[in-house]
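Batch manifest line 253
LIGAND: adenosine-5'-triphosphate
JOB: complex structure
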Amino acid sequence: MIQVQNLSVVLNDQPILKNIDIEVKSGEYFGLIGPNGSGKTTLLKTIAQLLPCEKGNMTIAGKHPSDYKQKEMARKLSYVPQDTNIDFDFNVKDIVAMGRHAHGGFFNKNDVDEEVVQEAMVATNTWRFKDQSILNLSGGQRQLVFIAKALAQDTPLILLDEPISALDIYYQMHILKLLEELTEKGKTVITVLHDLNLAARFCKKMLLLKEGQVEAYGETKEVITKQNLKKTYRIHAEIRDDQLIQALNVTPL
Ligand SMILES: Nc1ncnc2c1ncn2[C@@H]1O[C@H](COP(=O)(O)OP(=O)(O)OP(=O)(O)O)[C@@H](O)[C@H]1O
Ligand SMILES: [Mg+2]
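JOB STATUS: finished
ARTIFACT:
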């Protein structure tokens, strides 16, 4: 689905990402982890075509990004930003319906668009806010609305930047399971997560960034190791196989 080769990104004359090589296949649940400031958002935004890359090559579904028209790209990938603060007094349902713009349906809404919007809002439990202003919602509720918008966009690739950072434990699990179901249906998910336990539980493959470079990349078990966590996060951690959930468990000491 996505191939990134030798990617470098420079922002305000500062080298932010250096020589990134990753491949994410269709149907993968891919985790992007790393300390604050390591470049996760920059990488996700570069893949989402929101930032230009200085050097390197990228293909999305086999095509170079410049070979896509804007709307065609918006039918390929959706993006949930890290910061869901918004200054405009938008109606919640209208925000989710913006996800249908790529399908030609924001100003020309049809029944299918209505149905997809409602489905995305029900799945994220945001239908109950449909007539409210986004300004009246809490941080976590707002985050759910932006996830709903991405779901309504109905793209094969979904990019999410810390989508559960403001969510309570019920919604953290709910959203991560929802994304899992989507990958089982063939969609590709690339998500930034800070919670290493949840990342290890849901993501089969991962990229660990450190200071804009790849520190580890591959199967979760190869990435989440004591040594890698010590090198990148400067923590001592015990890593155990949790039989109950069949996943790695990280305990910082
Ligand atoms: N516009 C910019 N100009 C210069 N440097 C920038 C710019 N945006 C981000 N940076 C720097 O790039 C580095 C990576 O930032 P990025 O937002 O990608 O980190 P992150 O891994 O997402 O961090 P966090 O976990 O805190 O969200 C940081 O050191 C940041 O200060
Ligand atoms: Mg970030």
